[in-house]
Specification:
2 domains, 146 residues, three-stranded antiparallel β-sheet, Arc Repressor Mutant, subunit A, mainly alpha
């Protein structure tokens, strides 16, 4: 199992490098695509919610959102119900690059599952979803200082 986890880590790091190369012309860093997808799919999401959804500590979320706002991809709006919270909305610029982000992610999935049968792809998806659910339960119990 240790080798499996090492392999997962290597695939994840390689994915970030791939996204970085494929999205650089859009002004997006490899690690930022996940933030942009969450914001595009959940307009009005808070930074804290993103932190929980992506298992990323709050300071990293704040730093990335700051860069994305400066780049014109995200609009920050003060939350009327909680002055400490900021709500995030996609801009037209984000919506314009969203198809490219999705294309890059699909391209990566195809690359890393090359040679897999459809049954193997489905099995991998099911098993990885179970792993994420186990990780989510751990994180929800406060398993990490984020």
């Amino acid at each position: 199992m240790a080798k499996f986890m090492k392999n997962i880590n290597l695939v994840s790091r390689s994915a970030e490098v791939f996204r970085e190369e494929e999205l650089k012309d859009c002004g997006i860093r490899g690690c930022q695509s996940k933030y942009l997808l969450v914001i595009a799919q959940n307009p009005g999401v808070s930074q804290e919610e993103i932190s929980r959804m992506l298992f990323v500590n709050k300071s990293n979320v704040a730093r990335q959102i700051g860069m994305l706002a400066e780049g014109g991809f995200v609009i920050k709006v003060e939350n009327d119900r909680d002055r400490r919270a900021v709500l995030l909305y996609p801009t037209q610029k984000l919506m314009g690059v969203l198809p490219k982000i999705r294309e890059v992610l699909a391209k990566w999935r195809a690359l890393v599952t090359e040679g897999f049968t459809e049954e193997e792809r489905e099995q991998l998806s099911r098993l990885s979803e179970k792993m994420v659910e186990n990780a989510r339960r751990y994180m929800e119990r406060g398993g990490s200082e984020r």
